[in-house]
Amino acid sequence: MKRFLSILLCLMMVLSFASVVHADDKTTITFYCNPSKNGGVEAAVAAFEAANPNIHVEIVEFSSDTNQKKTTLSSIFQAQDDSADVFMMDCTWPDEFISAGWLLPLDGLYTEEELAEFIPGIMDICFDSNGTMYAIPEYLNAGVLVYRKDLLEKYNYEPAKTWEELIEQCKVIQEGEAKEGKPLSGFTSAWLEYEGLTCCAFEFMWDYGAKFAADGKCTLDSAEAQQGLAIMRRMVEEGVTDAGIRGYKWADSQAIFNAGSAIYMRDWPSAYKNAINPEKSSVSDSVGVTVLPSGTAGSFTTNGGWYIAVNAFTSHAEEAKTFAKFICGYEGQVAYSSKSGDLPTRPATYNDPAFEGTMTAQLYDIALTTTSRPSSAYYSEISAEIYTNAALVADGTKTPEQATADMTANIQAILDR
Amino acid sequence: MHNKQRLIFGYIALIPAIIVFCVFIVYPVINTFYLSFCNYRTQTIRQGPQWIGFANYAQMFSDDKMWTALKFTVLFTLISVVLESVLGMLCALIMNRQGKTRALVCAMILIPWCIPTVVSGLMWNYIFAESYGVLNYLLQLTGLTSGAVRWLTDSNYAFLSILISDVWKTVPYMSLLMLSALKTVDASFLEAAQIDGANKVQSFFKISMPCMKPIIIVAVMFRTIQSFRIYDLIRVLTNGGPQGKTTSLTIYTITQYTTYGNMGYGAALAVLTFIISMIIAVCFQDGVKSKLEV
User: Fold this and answer.
1) Are A337 and A344 within 8 A, CB to CB?
2) Å from A56 to nearest chain B CA?
3) pLDDT category of residue A4 using cuts at 50, 70 and 90
4) Taking the domain B36-293, which CATH number applies?
5) Which of A128, A184, A193 to substitute to test the interface with B, most B CBs within 10 Å?
6) Does pTM surpass 0.90?
């Protein structure tokens, strides 16, 4: 009897493993994506499933920390696992992922004419040095300046055109409001030591004319870069930034702005979408959006775009490619961006009725001029140098001169590998 | 015959456990040791691991960030283990008392330990937050500080914040172990001491402590090794910042291994953590043995 029971148990174990295999004929692919903003991903996936009833897409959301997202993906790929069939990829990852052999080549997925339908400036990241395509741009992200219309009107200000102007305006408004017993911060953003700070620091340095590298030499050790970082320090020193800014990721910074505790916020378009949403913001009626302030060399914004790629180890390559193409296609992008507030990568979509009267249409010009962060297989290490040093300057621990010298030396060592 | 059959069955029954042990413990450990002697990066993963001997270990000695992480980890381990042991013992003494408070203290003290570390980390994040944190609000309300304290972004305070949340979380664990140690003390010894005129403090240090020593040493050993590998709490609270000042050895290992894709160097760092943990274990083991032999 005992023996019979044990055999039965063993059989049950084996069978329970076997039952994992799906009985129906639908193919399920898994899509690793950024935490959904206002249901954008769900909308795009629903549109895809409606058009492809034989494919089911399982959505898996990343954490909100970009480095954490990359860690999640790297562990999957190092195991050559096929669990993430299709995934969103930050614009700073392709070099590393391609050289690791983790991305499925997408040759033949697009014709030349079809490729020309995307914004040209963001396409170079999609190809390796031999011209093989590995990624498709899904949405663009450009830094924007979100501001409180009511406060600026009250003090007769136009949205700041330069960083200097922003500092002056904030000081006056802060002082005025404090007198009325309503203390608030001037400016908030994501200045925690992570990727968000790298984006901000690059913008400050670019705004004053700094260039990252020329001919394989890092050129950040320049007066221009120092000027940019010095502005960050000034904003902290003069009490313009929110007290907690050095601990904020985007969500923290948005929480401050949406609670009505800040005048200006540097964030991405999706943050504006949240700020005007009465369910998420207590100042939804009085929020405006505009281009980022300029330095002496103009106004630059980091391309925070996200791309779609297919896992090289997927067991559903065809379905995965079909999905990738759809979600970056006209219909997919409109479905996604009209909900999420991110900017589509196809110029044609900006005229779609779904975007009429929205910020997306307003931001078309900014979208065309975003600047990419340096492209390198060792990008994470470069970024760590930038954000660590920028934080030290904001803190007042290092002078801008020291910081640019240190980061340049360390980045050069990375570039020389 | 019957015995032999039992023995064979015993070995057969062990096979699944041995397989699981080999696959999940032995293989990864050996592989990590092997990789620590290799140049192996995600960027060049297709070339496979390349043997470079002790180069990763040599790099470790000249790596300032590694030294910062090691210093932080050692300091943190020392302070947290001492605090947790002392406070744990105090709580255990309270729990060991007969009386009305006992049940209440037992129930309350266990709550922090029951909360998953990441969740309690996030909770402390809200408490320590600079401009909307509860702690700063209270400090400013009572006038103890004039401005906001940068609990998580100033390197000294960040250390303190992590220490506070770790102590809060782990004292219950220590107090349970200490309580079980207290229970092993033979009441007749204490009674005899009392009759001889010893006061409570004397009988605690002269009678209870020596009886409990072996258990305390094991408890402290576990805690030291655990504390040395602290990861999740720091991940959630400061992620190793500001400027890497709260980066523990495990955080640094994982940053190198996955974020930077430098798997060879990451493996070498993992081996370093492993070796130090082993040394801690061996030291304590000797302590346990010598005490038992007395």
Assistant:
1) yes
2) 30
3) low
4) 1.10.3720.10
5) A193
6) no
